[in-house]
């Protein structure tokens, strides 16, 4: 009896749900420290490491379940799928966080950014206020959803390229 080839979608969904759950826990941890609106290089670095780790684990599990084989395309499908599923979970949780748990989150984020701009740039207060007003246009829920989905797909594509290249192993047709 011939073995059936595993489906990439199953791995994308499973590991996307895992990454989404880990991301929600990470955001809740940041919320408990009142750092959920600040971002910064450390938060971004930890998020990227977690994302890369889950993508690699998902690819490795697919490869293991597929008799040690995985094409570059299959690796990309898995990585992008993981990022998309986790991104949807993150977007939904972010909307709950900003709308229910901490309705002042966007105002806190804008004030934090304003303070950072005042400390790190030579912009005048009027220029900073103008930039803050322009930034408010991108904080509507619909814009956050659109940009969140685009970011999830593009980031997971970029983060999947190298692992997919390293882990790929084509079946040889005899």
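^ Assign residues to that structure.
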């Amino acid at each position: 009896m011939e073995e059936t080839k595993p489906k990439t979608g199953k791995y994308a969904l499973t590991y996307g749900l895992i990454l989404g759950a880990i991301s929600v826990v990470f955001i809740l941890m940041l919320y408990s420290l009142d750092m959920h609106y600040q971002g910064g290089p450390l938060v971004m670095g930890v998020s990227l490491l977690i994302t890369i780790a889950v993508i690699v684990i998902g690819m490795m599990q697919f490869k293991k379940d597929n008799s040690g084989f995985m094409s570059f395309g299959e690796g990309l499908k898995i990585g992008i799928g993981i990022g998309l599923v986790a991104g949807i979970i993150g977007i939904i949780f972010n909307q709950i966080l900003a709308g229910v748990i901490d309705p002042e989150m966007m105002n806190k984020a804008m004030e934090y950014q304003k303070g950072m701009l005042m400390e790190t740039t030579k912009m005048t207060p009027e220029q900073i206020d103008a930039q803050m007003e322009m930034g408010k246009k991108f904080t509507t829920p619909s814009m956050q959803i659109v940009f969140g989905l685009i970011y999830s797909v593009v980031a997971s594509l970029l983060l999947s390229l190298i692992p997919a290249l390293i882990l790929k192993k084509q079946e040889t047709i005899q």
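The mean pLDDT is 89.
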